[in-house]
Every structure is written in C-alpha cells, then in structure tokens.
Amino acid sequence: MFSLLRSMWLTFLHAFHKRETILYPEQKPILPTRWRGRIVLSRDPDGGERCVACNLCAAACPVDCISLQATEDPTGRRYPEFFRINFSRCIFCGYCEDACPTYAIQLIPDFEMGEYNRQNLVYEKKDLLIDGQGKYHGYNYYKVAGMAIGGKDKGEAENEMPPVDTKSLLP
Amino acid sequence: MATIYIDNKPYEVKAGKNLLEACLNLGKDLPYFCWHPAMGSVGACRQCAVKVYKDENDTKGKLFMSCMEQVRDGMRVSIEDLEAKEFRAHIIGWLMTNHPHDCAVCDEGGSCHLQDMTVITGHNYRQYSFQKRTYRNQYLGPFLNHEMNRCIQCYRCVRYYKDYAGGKDLDVFAAHNHLYFGRAEDGVLESEFSGNLAEVCPTGVFTDKTLKQHYTRKWDLTSAPSVCHHCSLGCNTIAGERYGTLRNITNRYNGEVNGYFLCDRGRFGYEFVNSAGRVRKPLVRSQLPEATDKYTALKTAASVIKVGRTIGIGSPRASLESNFVLKKLVGEDNFHHGVSDVDHDLVEMALHILREGSARTPTLQEVEKADAVFILGEDLTNTAPMLALAVRQSVRQQPMLETVSKANIPLWQDAAVRGLVQTDKGPLFIAHYIPTNLDELATHTFFDSPDAIARLGFAVANLIDAGSPEVRGISEEEQALAQQIADALMKANNPLIISGTSSGNERVLKAAANIAHALVAKEKAAGISLVVPECNSLGLAMLGGHKLESAFEAVLNGYADTVIILENDLYRRASAATVDQFLEGCKQVIVLDSLHNPTTEKAGILLPAAPFSEADGTLINNEGRAQRFFQVHPVQQEIQESWHWLAEMGTIMADQEISDWHDYDDVVKAISKEYTALEGIRKTAPPSDFRIAGQRIARAPHRFSGRTAMNAGLNVSEPKPAEDPDSPLSYTMEGYRGQPPSSVIPFFWSPGWNSNQASNKYQEEIGGHLKGGDPGVRLIAPDGTLPFSEAVPQKFIPLEGHLYMLPLHHTFGSEELSNQSASIMERIPEPYVKINAADAIRMKLDEGQHLSFSIEGQIYQLPVKLSQTIPSGTAGMPNGLPGVPFAELPAWAILNRDIKWKQQPQTTF
After folding, report:
1. Where is the 4Fe-4S ferredoxin-type domain (chain A) (predicted)?
2. B600 neighbors B592 (Cβ within 8 angstroms)
3. Residue B833 to residue B249: CA distance in whole angstroms
C-alpha cells in the first residue's frame, strides 16, 4: 500500500521537473559532433576529392551497402567513378569512417533522411560529396602518399627526399 | 624422409628440401620475400630467419635463414623463439622504412605479399619518421605499370625476368640505397612473359596496367577457374569479374601445366571480352529491327534449319561441347571442321602420332626436366609461348644433373647453382627457317626450308635406328649435324622432340615422329611434344568431321543450302573469294559468335555466343589433356554458350536426343557415351550437384563488398542471386569456405595469405601437385603401333618468278581473339614480308620497299624485311595478322613484277 502511494507521489512530482522532451521539428536537437548520422564524402584543404577509391569502406561495411568504382584522372590521381551508398541498408555503425585512410567518408550529426520512396535512399556521389573538409581539418592524403599526381611530383610530398639520381655514385 | 623438431614437436618432412619449404609445407606461416618456389633461394632478404639448435641440450641456438638451410634428420628448429620473431619484425621494419603510404591507391593492396608478411610479423606501427626515398617511374609498355617507390629490393623481378625467362631489358641499376629495378630507358618490356612480374613482385612495383583501367581489389572479384583460350597449351587461369565486365586474368597454379606463370598473350588477351565489338543481341537480318529477343531468333533459326539442307561448321576455338552439339544437330555427315585444309590434315596427323606413336607427350613441367631437346620447325615463343619458357628451363637440366649434383649443392640453392652452371647449357637443337628467341640457348641452329628440316629429322632418326628410312643426297655438313643431334639425344636420359603444325609441313611432323619412335626403339624415355594451332584443335580432331573444302563443295554443288557457323571467322580459314562465293551460295547463314567479324556481317541469323568467361566448357590441349573452364559471372543479356543455343534449337525442332539435354552435365554425359576416347571429360570436374557440407563453392571471397549497393542504383529491391545450373559453384559469396577440389578452385586464399602466394597452401608439396591431383584428365596415351614413316621429302627447289611463302607467327597478332584486346593491339607488328637478303639483291629490293605478289588470285603488296636465314626461293608472311588477307600457307606466291594497280581489284591492307 505504502509503495503504491510513494510511486504515485514520485510520478506526481515529475510534473514540476524540467522537460526533457524537445518539440521536434520546431526545435532542433543538439547532437554531439561525433554523432553517427548521414554519411558524407569530404574534400581536402585544396578542394580536391578526398576519396581515393581504395574500397576499404566497402570492405568494412557489415551490410555491404557501399559500392564504388575506382578511376584515375590523366595525372594519375585516383577518385571514385561512382560512389553509391544504399541507406535503406545502412546501420550507421561508422566502420566505414574507421576504415577510411583519407578521412574522406565521415558520419555527421544529421539524421533527417526519411523518405516516402525507398529508392530515394540510394545516394550517389553527387548526393554524398560536400564542399568542405567535414570533421577533420587539414589532412591531405596525397601529401603523404608516394604517388605523383597533378600538382605534386615525386619527392614533393611531406617527409620525402627528392627523386634518386640513379646515375650518381655519391652516397 | 627426415624428422625435424619445430618448437619441440616432431614432424616428418622430405629430406633434401630447404627448411623454409618444409615449414610452409607443414602449414607454418613463416614470412619470406626473395624465395620463390619456382626460382629457389638466394638468402637475400633475411626475412625467413628461424632459430636452429645444435642438439636437444642447446638452449641458446643460432639464427639461420631457413631458405638457405637444408633439412637434416633430427634437426631442432624454433619459429616461435622470441629472438627469431624479433629479428623478423626488425627486418620487415627496415624493409618498410622507405615504403610509401600508398596502400590505398596501390593496385597490389588486398593481394599484396608485403602486406601479408607485415601482418604475419606483427609490424603494425611504423617507427621510422624520417624522410622517405623516392624514384621516378618508367613507361614499360601497355602491360605493366611501374611504381618504383614501393620497391623493397628483394631482387625477385630481375631473377625472374633475366634468369628464369631470359629477358634482356630489365635490370638493376645504381648502387647502395639507390638500387633501381627497371629498364635502361623508358620503353616496352620486350619479353613475352613480362606480365608475370605483376605476380612475382611481392609488392606493387609492377602491376597489371589493364586491371588499372577498371581497377578492382582481389576481394571484390567474382572469380572462376578458367583455361586460357589463346594457344594450344591450355594454361590454367583465374578470370575475375566485377560489375559485369571481366577485370583481369591471373595465374591458376597447375603443377603439371603452367606452374606459376603465364605468357602475356594469355594474361592480357582477355580484354576482347569487354570490347565494343561484342555481339550482345540476337539479330535476324530478314526483319526490322534486326535486334530481336531470344525466342524469335531461336524459332526463326529452327524453322530455317528444318526446311533447309543444313551443314555445320565447327571451330577449334569453341568448346568440345559446342562442337559436339552442332555435330548432333546437323548430323555426322554434315559436320565440317572450320579450319583451313592444311591445318585439318596436320592436326589429324598430330593426333595420329600422339595416339599411335610410341613416345609419350610430356606435360609442361616434364618438359622443364628434359635434358636434350630437338625442335623441328616451330617458333615456340610465338606459337606456344609457355612451352618456350619450359624449354628455357630444360637447357639447364643437363649441367645441373652433371656438375651440381657432383658438387653436392641442392638444386634450390639458386645463386650457387647458377654460379656453378654459369653459361653451360644442355643440348638444344633448333631447326627452323627464321631465327627464334630460343636460338641464343641452342647448341646448334639449322636454318632451311621445312622440307630440309624434315630431311634433317629423317637423317637423325635413321642414325638412331636404321629402321627409319635413309635420306638420299644429304650434304656432309647436314649428315655431321644429324650425327651430333643423334648422339646428344642418345646420351640424354629424357630426350624430347618438339614439333608442330605451324610450319604447315606434314613431313616435319613425320620426321619428328620417326625420331621419337627411333629413340623409344632404343629404349630411351623419349617424349614428343606437338604444338597445334588453337586451344581446342585437338578436341575438334578427336570429335571427327569433314574438311572445310567439302563444306564449300556441298553448297556450290547444291547438296546443302543452309549453314550453321560456330564461333568461326571463315575469312581466317579460306581465301576471301572462296568464302564470299560460299556464303553467297547459301540460302541461310546462321552464325554463333561472341565478336563481330567479317563472317558475322554475312550472317542472316546471328546469335550472341558467350566468350570463355561467360561459358562452361571443356578444351583439349596439345598433350590431350581435357580441362574444364567455368562461367565467371551471370550474364544479364541474352548471351549464352553456343552449346546452349544449339541444344535449344534442337529442342524446338523436337530432336529426340537433344530434347533430353537440360544442362551442361547432360551434354557431357552424351559426349562420353558416344565417344569412348572422350570418356575422361566427365572426370575433369565434379558434377553440378556436387556439394561440400551441403554447400556450393563460392565464386566470391568472404570479403566481397557492395552486395546490397551495386545494383541499388537500378532498383533498391534486391533481386534473387543468379543460380548456376551447370557447375557446383555459386555466383555469390555464399558457399563452402575451405579448400575445394583442385579443379574448382576459384581463387587462392588462405587466412593471412591474400596474395597469390596462398597457392602454397593448396599444394601437396611446395611447387608440386595440387592437393588431390592437378586438374585435367589426359585422354591420349600412345600405343606404339605407328610404323616408321617412309615419306622422306625431296630437296626444296626454288622456282623462277615465284617465292615459296612460309607462315610466320607472332605472339601478339597471330591469334584471333587476343588481337581484339586493346593492350595486345599495341604490340601487334605492322604487316611485312620476309625475304632472303640475297634474293632481295637479285630482285633489286631494299628493306622497307614493297614486294607485290599473289597467292591463288589474292594480291598482296607488303613492305620487305630482309632475312639472312630464310632460304633462297622462299619467303615468310605473318599468319593471321590484322590487315593481311588470308592465304593457305605454305604456298607458291607468284611475283608480280609490274602490277598495274589501277587495273587490279582493290584490296585494302
């Protein structure tokens, strides 16, 4: 009997507590930056596509909802010819972001992706690619990789020596 | 056998092997770089260090490089010893100091030996934070990409390219930490075996350039075991597909056939499958629109066949099944071989020799063990490249047997063996009309006309066994050479005679058969290897059928009015005029092919046949080995195997027997029932209902990605995966994960071993047979009933105003399908005619000037190349080269000294 009354009393007290419920969508929730929401493809500080189409995100994806095809521009810079994420399958686990060696693929705090038509949940590269660097600023994969691409010749990356002169005998 | 103790556990291993091989054989994951099963040990990379203890009381032990240490009975070894482990981790750390952060953009990633070894040694984080060395790359031609930064200086590339494959233009340059592996200057890699560098290189310095154009990681490929369709040797390959297009061909280890390597025609010839010239829709040319659906095409074809008097023309590049079903459909009497009459006779002759001769055909791996070789009239590098590579190894046999075994050095000690052998070579004699790439290894080369080559062969046979006919009027010089060859062959333990159909002369084949017969009569374990023109030439010959000429006659004489042409461009089999006349004489022409060609242009009904990667079938290679190839991926369009098309036609026509065939196994059963000689093809692979633990064998690896996204662009609702009624393989990643039977291995993978080096885990013994026996069933065994041939030819006599035109072959350019591959196209030579230098002076011709001649009415005008070796009165013309109209060679060419070109029918070259 006592416990019954106590419970009712405690419930009654809640009427005077601060509200936790937000009036979404009039009021937007504040999400932490590491919230795993919509997936984007970001660009490096120079504005180039960060994704080098290495396929690691696709391999890491437990529901296999990422598919892409690598291609190269005439200077040897690799990028995805198409990049498709099937969000009707995505479980927002963030493994793709963990696997990405170039910080290209990022999960951002946005969850407003509801669609009436399931087909619209299939995002292509034009839907995924953003114009900024996303959460990770300043990183440019091609500045640390050894491949020569347009605008960066051999030996011009960070921590690289100029190309070896094979004709020299000097140590 | 010897007992060794690894980490205090006793193991039985084969004595005489090196410790690394023994450990790998036992399934231990011991890292290595410079060692390669086909190339032996040099002990350069220091990666395979293990602790070896003096005896059981020794607790300290010493570090040894396991690849350099021979297995001894009672040996005590530790792989797990902390010091050894630390040593190996340090070595890889040092090798990685200059390795770039490239994995994400490197084509090797995911099938990289260096990645695997780094993970095995536990070198997870890089400690080196100083500057990295860089290199400039080279252009190496259409096949390989060069990225020198990634090099770890293991020397495998030069050891393979120079020592193993005999290449001249790849080397190591510079000194100390500036070592550079490449060419002296940018340029196309000359060797026909350069593509293997992509697999030999443990990292991404050399990678497949054709794969780069549609790059896919190994884990994303849907692969199936396949057999190379580009020459008669039948090398085993793995074909990989992604998003509906074929992505690459890699080596499929077969301990009896190709071992670890492939030639460039086989590796890069696959691109024709993706070419724009593919036939993708059934066409019925009597209606508009021409492109139609499967059933309209089939019904039209069936009705045409029903009314017409139909003949069928088979193909040496189509599978045994397709040829068989065509033969059934048109009837035994109406089945013709779609090959030139010269080829028809020569292949029949070769089959005759293999079946009734006395010498056995060695496998490619046995060819490597031959200690005396005599090649008659074959330019192996250009007609059967991998056989040339095997012969290249065989010349080392005799010195190795003699000097190396005496010096008590194990054969896997590569550097020591090569140092001891130096340039010593075993006996290799080559008789051909032009220089071949193997000449540099030959004890003696003999250049003359095919008839003279046959005469030399007969002389050798006569010297070995007097039962073989004598050769009259032979010069003293030739007699002395014949004696030298006969002596060398008699001295050898495993003499080998190689010949083939490419010189177009049956006397050469007969001479080769006589030598082999004579050697066997003298109780020698002699072998005979005969090269035939195409991948299923021997299969077609075993199936039997009439000549192509009789097909032409049947139509011209009105016995037939409808023809079914199976995967065959007749304009490569007979002269254009003849074929034009033939096709015009036919009321209905039904063609099944995978690529558009001049014959498909003339087809009334054209059915899209599946190329090798979209088909199941069996091929019979030049040793009589039946080998199964599997469909790699399901096809969306209305493309199916030729045997499927033909069987469906038969079903529509209510053919009693054909209506009962529902899948691949039914056709194979029917073949083996009808032909006792072909019974073995049922054993080439498990039947389609074969399951392991109730499961099919998965074509895709377990890491296969993008399953739920790749087709989502078209429709988000995923379709049911395609099922394969014809094989025990599944098209998806679902299926049995362990090792399948050797004939259905879709890819080599083992936990921790993602590169092709995983094949170690599939072998009974490193570099030996695959577990459960190598794939393929040999159908031919010689019965020794063939008597000595008496057909010694006369000397070749030149004819005034004529040249005897001999066929010349090219690795890149002479084969129909690979000619349609973009990368191969870059390597195809320009058309030419090769004439004797002395003849050229007489004809007042210089290199590059045009020579006009005609063969059977077909006029040619080709730039001249001079040759010192081609006999006077003969000339050579490239066979099958694009832009050179067909002529049945060898043939007499009439020299047209003053052709009035304006009055001639114009032919475009």
Report:
1. 39-71, 81-110
2. no
3. 33
pLDDT for the residue B354: 95
Q: What is the mean pLDDT of residues B721-737?
A: 93
Asked if residue A164 belongs to a domain, the reply is no
Cα separation, B654 vs B707, whole angstroms: 41
Q: Helix, strand, coil shares of chain B as percentages rounded to 5?
A: 35, 20, 45
HSE-CB for B181 with a 13 A CA cutoff? 23
Q: Is residue A48 part of a domain?
A: yes
Beta bridge pairs of residue B224: B239
CATH number where A41 lies: 3.30.70.3270
Give B902: exposed, middle or buried? Use CB within 10 Å, 0-12, 13-18, 19+: exposed
Contact B706 A66 (CB under 8 A): yes
- Answer whether B762 touches A (CB < 8 Å): no
CB count within 10 Å of CB B875 equals 29
Which residue in A has a C-alpha nearest to residue B132's C-alpha?
A160
| B560 and B477 belong to one structural domain | no
Question: Taking CB atoms and an 8 Å cutoff, what residues of chain B touch A119?
Answer: 715-716
Same domain (yes/no): B335, B386: no
Whether residues B607 and B487 share a domain: the answer is no
Pairing of strands B527-531, B495-500: parallel
Our count of domains for chain A comes to 1
- For B470-507, write each residue's pLDDT tens digit: 999 999 999 999 999 999 999 999 999 999 999 999 99
For chain B, the domain total comes to 4
- From the list A61, A146, A163, the residue facing B705 with the nearest CB is A61
Within a 10 A sphere around the Cβ of B279, how many other Cβ atoms? 22
User: Rounded CA gap, B198 and B639, in Å?
Assistant: 32
Amino acid identity for residue B37 in this structure: P
Q: Is residue A38 part of a domain?
A: yes
B371 within some domain:
yes
Q: Are B257 and B250 in contact (CB under 8 A)?
A: no
Tell me if B136 and A66 make a contact (CB, 8 A cut-off): no
Q: How far is B715 from chain A (nearest CA, A)?
A: 7
Calculate the alpha carbon distances from A148 to A75, B214, B509 in Å: 8, 20, 55
Strand-pair category, B171-173 with B180-182: antiparallel
B609 secondary structure, DSSP code: B
* CATH number of the domain that residue B483 is part of: 3.40.228.10
Distance from CA of B704 to the nearest CA of A (A): 7
What is the nearest CA distance from A69 to chain B, expressed in angstroms? Answer: 7
Q: Cα torsion at B590, B595, B596, B597 (round to 10°)? A: -90
The answer to whether the beta carbons of residues B500 and B350 sit under 8 Å apart is yes
Percentage of chain B exceeding pLDDT 70 = 99
B125 occurs within a structural domain: no
Are B307 and B374 within one domain? no
- Tell me the chain A residues in contact with residue B150 when contact means C-beta distances shorter than 8 Å: 146
Q: Is A96 annotated as a binding residue?
A: yes
Residue type, B904: Q
* Distance in Å from the first CA to the final CA of chain A: 92
Tokens found for residue B777:
């069933």
Structural Rg of chain A based on CA atoms: 24
Is the same domain home to B611 and B757? yes
Question: Among residues B754, B736, B313, which one has the least CA distance to residue B560?
Answer: B313
Q: What is the pLDDT of residue B909?
A: 47
Q: Hey, what are B587's tokens?
A: 């009321």
With beta carbons under 8 A apart, name residues in chain B contacting A128: none
Q: Is the pLDDT of residue A171 over 80?
A: no
Write the residue in B214, B705, B715 that is nearest to A58 by C-beta: B705
Domain hosting residue B834, numbered range: 802-903
ipTM attached to this prediction = 0.90
- The answer to whether the annotation marks A65 as part of a ligand binding site is no
Report whether A100 belongs to an annotated binding site.
yes
Is residue B640 located within the same domain as residue B735?
yes
Give the Cα separation of B113 and B116 in Å (integer): 5
